[in-house]
């Protein structure tokens, strides 16, 4: 079975500081991809960053980086220099070759304080 | 261009109404998806179309009827809905739904339709 766990229902961060959103996963799939999405209150699910299970280096996209630790089955999202516009719900998701379905965690609500 | 569009943005309907949600993408993707999302919950997969054919139906009630007229368009026809069907309906698209590349295939989402059933 595949499972994504996000243990932080809500988090606060001060503007301009860095924040780490936790994500752990469980899968028997030998090949899988890990994704992070941002969902503001408007509702749109915005793709942020992708990490493949065989990638040797951690993925980075601008202020977003993914701290991938395969042995610990974790794929934490790091947002550097937080901005007020980063306030949103963040979902970690996984997609494997066995089912092809995108499996989501329960999400973490991030609030950036001015 | 990673844009998926959805119309309408908001929809209020009675339980006896018939309405349709529309989704469009021009990224050349051959896989399209419908998700249902309740407040503060993750999206739940409803349907998957691959190359314009329905490939996955997650045991969705028949009052939801998907249609894929061509590779760029995806509709969700609604009939005799219940108040508990009120939710955000998200459309997504991606390159593929199968094969060895599936784990690298990113799904891109539209802005969603907020549906209220009275």
Mean pLDDT of chain B: 93
Order of helices and strands of chain B: EEEEEEEEEEE
Q: How far is the first residue's CA from the last residue's CA of chain A?
A: 41 Å
Give the mean pLDDT of chain A.
96
Assign an overall shape of chain A: globular
What does the largest sheet of chain B look like? 7 strands, mixed
Number of strands of chain B: 11
Class derived from helix and strand content of chain B: mainly beta
Note the total helix count of chain A.
0
Topology of this structure?
The complex is a heterodimer of chains A (114) and B (118).
Chain A: E1 3-5, E2 10-14, E3 19-21, E4 24-26, E5 32-39, E6 46-52, E7 60-61, E8 64-69, E9 74-79, E10 88-96, E11 102-104, E12 108-113
Parallel strand pairs in A: 2-12
Antiparallel strand pairs in A: 1-4, 3-9, 5-6, 5-10, 7-8, 8-9, 10-11, 10-12
Chain B: E1 4-7, E2 10-13, E3 18-25, E4 31-37, E5 44-50, E6 53-57, E7 64-70, E8 73-79, E9 87-94, E10 108-109, E11 113-117
Parallel strand pairs in B: 2-11
Antiparallel strand pairs in B: 1-3, 3-8, 4-5, 4-9, 5-6, 7-8, 9-10, 9-11
Can you give a write-up of this model?
The complex is a heterodimer of chains A (114) and B (118). With 114 residues, chain A is mainly beta. In chain A, 0% of the residues lie in helices and 54% in strands. In chain A, strands 2, 5, 6, 10, 11 and 12 form a 6-stranded mixed β-sheet that branches. In chain A, a hairpin with a 2-residue loop joins strand 7 (60-61) and strand 8 (64-69). Chain A is globular and about 45 Å long. With 118 residues, chain B is mostly beta strands. Chain B is globular. The A-B interface holds A 29, 31-33, 35, 37, 42-47, 50, 52-53, 89, 91, 95-97, 100-102, 104-107, 109 and B 2, 40-43, 45, 56, 88, 90, 92, 97-98, 100, 102-112, 114.
